[in-house]
Design a protein that fits this description.
This protein is mainly alpha-helical and about 270 residues long. It is built from 12 helices and 2 strands; from the N terminus they run αββααααααααααα. It has one domain: MetI-like fold.
Length: about 270
């Protein structure tokens, strides 16, 4: 853990506070890089990544939760549950360039489905795969299976005795979910949503292959900075951007860990 996690974070923390004088080319301690990432294109990249991650995480959590509830509630669904969980384990890790190419070949500007709908005189109704909306749709492909994997253990841990006690006391289905099931499931659902947010926020290869650098995303800005696509004296912008991502993801995962501890009180 020290080599793989702590050492890189330490290097980022040190390099983010160093800058190069554009005149003398001397390195010095400075907060210029950290100040720069909050302004202009870098600030917009953080806003774009946060918006994309929030939207895709909320949609992925809602759809994944509904899908998991439907699968677990299906009659004779033991085989279906195993198949869904196995497929989710595969699809949750299917991303990067192959996923982007799959969507480009399907609903891209020259995709199979796009060409078919165009021949029928329908089209995609102004939808563009190479936009924030299109990128969020692509992210849902691996976020929904990740939500299914994450929330299924919590759903399975809901004890049938709680529902039976609720029914015996005359509660309706809505009252059970409002006062019993919902409050118990809320922490794991929030924790899973935070996990989806972190996964979406840190995604790079899919966005790079799909939209290049046309959208303001912080991971794409880091790639440009690390490829020396910066002005003289701003060589450490990339490390400052990466340190900012570490801080954001660290806060999200700290909240996730806190929620998980609260969840264990009821589901163990």
């Amino acid at each position: 853990m020290a080599v793989v996690l702590l050492l890189p974070i330490g290097v980022l923390a040190v390099e983010a506070f160093r800058s190069t004088d554009p005149t003398t080319f001397e390195e010095r301690w400075s907060t210029d890089s950290l100040t720069a990432i909050t302004e202009g294109a870098y600030g917009r990249a953080y806003v774009g990544s946060l918006q994309l991650s929030a939207v895709s995480a909320v949609l992925g959590a809602a759809l994944g939760l509904a899908f998991a509830v439907a699968v677990l509630g299906a009659k004779r669904g033991r085989l279906l549950r195993r198949l869904v969980l196995t497929a989710s384990g595969v699809l949750a890790n299917f991303g990067g360039v192959p996923l982007a190419f799959t969507f480009i070949a399907t609903i891209g500007s020259s995709g199979v489905v796009t060409a078919l709908l165009t021949d029928l005189g329908l089209g995609l109704g102004g939808f563009s795969l190479y936009s924030m909306t299109g990128l969020a749709l692509v992210y849902l492909y691996f976020l929904i299976p990740l939500m299914v994997l994450t929330i299924t253990p919590a759903l399975e841990a809901l004890r049938p005795q709680w529902r039976e006690a609720s029914d015996n006391l005359g509660a309706s289905g809505w009252q059970y979910w409002r006062h019993v099931g919902g409050p118990i499931l809320l922490p794991p659902v929030l924790g899973a949503t935070m996990l989806l947010f972190a996964s979406s926020f840190a995604a790079y290869a899919t966005a790079k292959a799909l939209v290049g650098s046309t959208l303001p995303l912080v991971t794409l800005q880091i790639a440009d900075a690390l490829s020396s696509n910066v002005v003289v004296g701003s060589e450490n912008i990339g490390t400052a951007l990466a340190l900012g991502m570490v801080v954001v993801v660290g806060l999200v995962m700290a909240f996730y860990a806190w929620v998980q501890r609260r969840t264990q009180r009821w589901l163990t």
